[in-house]
């Protein structure tokens, strides 16, 4: 509740700034300025209104899909307008400085600049929101693991993360992802968290298509932070019934043609706040066979260095949603241990100033979807990740 109130206050401040920067300078009748300012203010209060009207859950308002989408468009417009306003006002300051120095003459075209920025903000908002809610494409990536046995050469892992089944991402959306995943014929499916936003009684039908995922070596998952906000005990029971085996501080040993591969998982750090265990990679790997590559599911990437030290070969994470848009991605990166999306080498064995080798590969997925609070993707497409395992040459 406190987080929601703080977020609303920040959003209102953004709305007033965007109004002053973009709406007030427009050369249009006052009624249009009032309408524009009202839309920005509605966007600022979106989360508060949704919380009041949609059952009281900040992360999972139970409202019609169209209402969620309309609110998302207004909020996304507000955030995009903020960043573009900063750019426009920086240009205005440079103009003023140049005018003072006698470099340029004439008044800054504030009205035209504001109109151009609003049009650009609207276009980017429509595109970024569409990119966020469409069915994701498949991204195929090769992974070379030291010590991988011949039995796992060429095996395929489908990575799904940040599904966030909700009033925005309803059953048809989840069903389409499942169908696209099954069409890849993966050997293993891994889902490291953030399955859902909302209580099981509200979102059970939307997430149920996960029961149709098929992989001969199993469908495995672990918790994300949003499971705890949504009643983790109920969801853990349902996911297990649907064939998603949860690896919470534990591992399993897969076998193929005489070879072995360890799949492990740790829960999200939010667990202890709700009476559940926190992540413990040492416990997760206790009893794992020596010399066998370890793939770890960890919803957040931030503990990668510690996991590398524990002997993990490959960590698969999400949580960051890829940063969602330029500039914002740099903030998200700083909040997540320096990781935001894509491949990272972690745990270098350093001699002098040069790293001789790396203990672990980290892949941070941009997410297969994202939560309804800010469904925006600019230069940050979602993906169903298909990882093909290879032995190191």
How many DSSP H or I helices? 12
CATH class of the largest domain: Alpha Beta
User: Beta fraction of the residues?
Assistant: 15-25%
What's the β-strand tally?
A: 12
Could you state the order of secondary-structure elements as H and E?
HHHHHEEHEHEHHEEEHEHEHEEE
> Main sheet?
6 strands, mixed
Whole-number radius of gyration?
23 Å
**In the residues, how many domains can be counted?**
2
**Fraction of helical residues:** 40-55%
Which structural class matches the secondary elements?
alpha/beta
- CATH architecture assignment of the largest domain: 4-Layer Sandwich
CATH fold node name of the largest domain: Purple Acid Phosphatase, chain A, domain 2
Note poorly predicted spans: 350-356
Fourth CATH level, the homologous superfamily of the largest domain: Metallo-dependent phosphatases
Note the overall shape.
elongated
**Average pLDDT across residues?**
93
Helix and strand arrangement:
Layout: H1 2-23, H2 30-44, H3 46-53, H4 65-100, H5 110-133, E1 137-145, E2 156-159, H6 171-182, E3 188-192, H7 200-207, E4 219-222, H8 225-229, H9 232-241, E5 244-246, E6 250-256, E7 259-266, H10 281-284, E8 294-298, H11 304-309, E9 314-317, H12 328-335, E10 342-351, E11 354-364, E12 383-391
Parallel strand pairs: 1-12, 2-3, 3-4, 4-5, 7-8, 8-9, 9-11
Antiparallel strand pairs: 2-12, 6-7, 10-11
Helix pairs in contact: 1-2, 1-4, 2-4, 4-5
Characterize the structure shown.
The model is unreliable at 350-356 (pLDDT under 50). With 393 residues, the protein is of the alpha/beta class. α1 (2-23) runs antiparallel to α2, α1 (2-23) crosses α4 (65-100) and α4 (65-100) runs antiparallel to α5 (110-133). The longest helix has 36 residues, at 65-100. A 6-stranded mixed beta sheet has the order 1-12-2-3-4-5. Strands 6-7-8-9-11-10 form a 6-stranded mixed beta sheet. It has 2 domains: 2-132, no CATH class; 137-391, Purple Acid Phosphatase, chain A, domain 2 (4-Layer Sandwich), CATH 3.60.21.10. It has helices at 2-23, 30-44, 46-53, 65-100, 110-133, 171-182, 200-207, 225-229, 232-241, 281-284, 304-309, 328-335; strands at 137-145, 156-159, 188-192, 219-222, 244-246, 250-256, 259-266, 294-298, 314-317, 342-351, 354-364, 383-391.
């Amino acid at each position: 509740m406190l987080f929601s109130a703080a977020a609303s206050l920040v959003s209102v401040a953004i709305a007033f700034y965007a109004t002053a920067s973009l709406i007030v300078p427009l050369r249009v009748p006052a009624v249009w300025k009032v309408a524009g300012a009202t839309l920005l203010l509605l966007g600022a209060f979106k989360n508060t209104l949704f919380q009041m009207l949609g059952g009281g859950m900040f992360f999972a308002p139970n409202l019609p899909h169209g209402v969620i989408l309309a609110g998302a468009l207004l909020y996304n417009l507000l955030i995009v307008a903020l960043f573009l306003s900063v750019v426009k006002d920086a240009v205005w300051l440079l103009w003023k400085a140049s005018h003072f120095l006698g470099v340029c003459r004439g008044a800054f075209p504030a009205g035209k600049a504001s109109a151009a920025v609003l049009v650009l903000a609207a276009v980017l908002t429509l595109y970024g929101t569409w990119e966020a809610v469409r069915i994701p494409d498949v991204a195929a990536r090769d992974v070379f693991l030291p010590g991988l046995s011949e039995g796992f050469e060429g095996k395929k892992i489908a990575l799904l993360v940040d599904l966030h089944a909700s009033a925005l991402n309803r059953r048809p959306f989840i069903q389409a992802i499942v169908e696209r995943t099954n069409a890849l014929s993966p050997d293993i499916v891994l889902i490291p968290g953030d399955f859902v936003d909302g209580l099981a009684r509200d979102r059970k039908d939307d997430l149920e298509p996960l029961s149709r995922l098929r992989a001969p070596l199993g469908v495995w998952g672990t918790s994300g932070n949003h499971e705890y906000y949504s009643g983790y005990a109920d969801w853990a029971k349902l996911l297990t019934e649907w064939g998603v085996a949860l690896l919470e501080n534990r591992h399993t040993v897969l076998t193929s043609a005489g070879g072995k591969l360890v799949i492990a998982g740790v829960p999200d750090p939010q667990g202890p706040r709700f009476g559940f265990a926190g992540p413990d990679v040492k416990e997760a790997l206790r009893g794992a066979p020596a010399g066998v590559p370890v793939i770890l599911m960890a919803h957040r990437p931030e503990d990668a260095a510690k996991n590398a030290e524990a002997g993990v070969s490959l960590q698969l994470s999400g949580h960051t949603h890829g940063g969602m848009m330029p500039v914002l991605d740099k903030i998200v990166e700083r909040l997540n241990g320096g990781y935001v999306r894509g491949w990272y080498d972690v745990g270098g064995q350093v001699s002098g100033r040069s790293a001789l080798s790396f203990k672990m590969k980290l892949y941070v997925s941009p997410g297969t979807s994202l939560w309804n609070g800010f469904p925006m993707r600019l230069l940050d497409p979602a993906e169903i990740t298909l990882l093909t395992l290879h032995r190191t040459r």
